[in-house]
Design brief:
Blueprint (H helix, E strand, L loop, with lengths): L1 E6 L3 H12 L4 E4 L26 H14 L3 E3 L3 E5 L5 E5 L2 E10 L3 E3 L7 H4 L4 E2 L2 H4 L7 E5 L3 H10 L5 E5 L9 H8 L4 E4 L2 E7 L6 E6 L5 E5 L2 E4 L3 E3 L10 E2 L2 E2 L12 E3 L11 H18 L3
Parallel strand pairs: 1-2, 1-6, 2-3, 6-19, 8-15, 9-10, 9-15, 10-11
Antiparallel strand pairs: 4-5, 5-6, 7-16, 12-13, 13-14, 17-18
The structure holds flavin-adenine dinucleotide.
């Protein structure tokens, strides 16, 4: 039986691994996709201390994983499909196998919210994207649309304006939530067209996205806009399905304080998946460190 199992290999999970191993605990980390999580999908991270010129998201992610693996972290590229969190012996099922552990650190992070349009899933990867920094370069010289009104949407529009021939940003309200400085930069960018009080109502295209239907919220009128790419940036959803019915949640996030302890003993939630005021790499890494230290303390290690 392991001392700890970590679910999720983003900044929170990788940092938890580093701290657990340095505390002499046995552990395994399960990651269903790639290490770094959301951090690995961003072009550059400019606010993580120690990198005055910024660092690429994938590069920082690989460095974190390398550091954890150099200490002996067992990273298993499998999706955790089921968790049994109550009781002294906790169980995780992945790839048809169940392993037992004394404690669990949940670091499943969050994922982008969908618009819930009829053809959205079908056209995802065929013009519809949730990550401008991942896919932006594919749209060099093309017409793209960004949906959303927060920092991410405006940052995406600015980033895409470097590649695309035209960027249209569509926001359902008449004012952007994004930082003022970002909005001003966007307003001054010649190839960004800003549509306020407007929604994307439908997507069209057979093999790939060709056109979107826009609706003016005030007049109710719809019109078609040809588009090669649609970047959806309308918020995040915590990945808490594994914990539902077992742990207390708040607004969909796992309820946990600064000590990362959840409503069950020896179960911790670290990073974007837990209730917290700021969701950033530094906070996720900090949570991972705290969760590992709390696990070591609670296990009497
Ligand atoms: C486009 C973008 C740009 C960003 N830019 C910045 C920035 O410049 N600076 C900054 O500080 N922050 C930035 N962030 C936010 C930052 O990336 C996140 O706050 C941080 O990655 C959260 O780390 P995490 O470990 O909590 O979760 P995540 O990074 O979401 O990682 C969670 C991991 O868990 C895995 N997982 C989920 N469920 C399972 C399962 N059942 N089994 C196995 N694995 C599972 C996922 O595959 C994922 O790898 C950005 C985020 C995005 C999306």
């Amino acid at each position: 039986m392991l001392d700890t199992v970590i679910v999720g290999g983003g900044p929170a999970g990788l940092t938890a691994g580093i701290y657990l191993l340095r505390a002499g605990l046995t552990c395994a980390l399960f990651e269903r996709q790639f290490v770094g999580g959301q951090a690995a999908t961003t072009n550059v991270i400019e606010n993580y201390p120690g990198f005055p010129e910024g660092i690429g998201g994938p590069e920082l992610s690989l460095k974190m994983a390398e550091q954890a693996q150099s200490l002996g972290l067992d990273i298993r590229y499998d999706e955790a499909e089921r968790l049994e969190l109550a009781g002294k012996v906790k169980r995780l099922t992945a790839a048809g196998r169940t392993i037992e552990t004394r404690s669990v650190i949940l670091c499943m992070g969050a994922s982008p919210r969908r618009l819930q349009l009829k053809d959205e899933e079908r056209l995802t990867g065929r013009g519809v994207s949730y990550c401008a920094t991942c896919d932006g370069a594919l749209y060099r010289g093309r017409r793209v649309v960004v949906v959303g009104g927060g920092d991410t949407a405006v940052e995406d529009a600015l980033y895409l304006s470097r590649f695309a021939s035209s960027v249209t940003i569509v926001h359902r309200r008449d004012a952007f939530r994004a930082q003022r400085a970002l909005v001003t930069r966007m307003e001054r960018t010649p190839n960004i067209d800003i549509l306020r009080s407007c929604t994307v109502d439908a997507l069209f295209g057979e093999e790939k996205l060709e056109e979107i239907a826009l609706r003016d919220v005030t007049s109710g009128k719809t019109r078609a806009l040809p588009a090669d790419g649609l970047f959806i940036a309308v918020g995040m959803e915590p990945r808490t399905a594994l914990a539902e019915g077992q742990l207390e949640l708040e607004n969909g996030y796992i309820r946990a304080g600064e000590d990362t302890r959840t409503s069950l003993p020896l179960v911790y939630a670290a990073g974007d998946v837990r209730t917290k005021p700021l969701r950033q790499v530094i906070c996720a890494a900090a949570d991972g460190a705290v969760a590992a230290s709390m696990a070591a303390l609670d296990l009497g290690a």
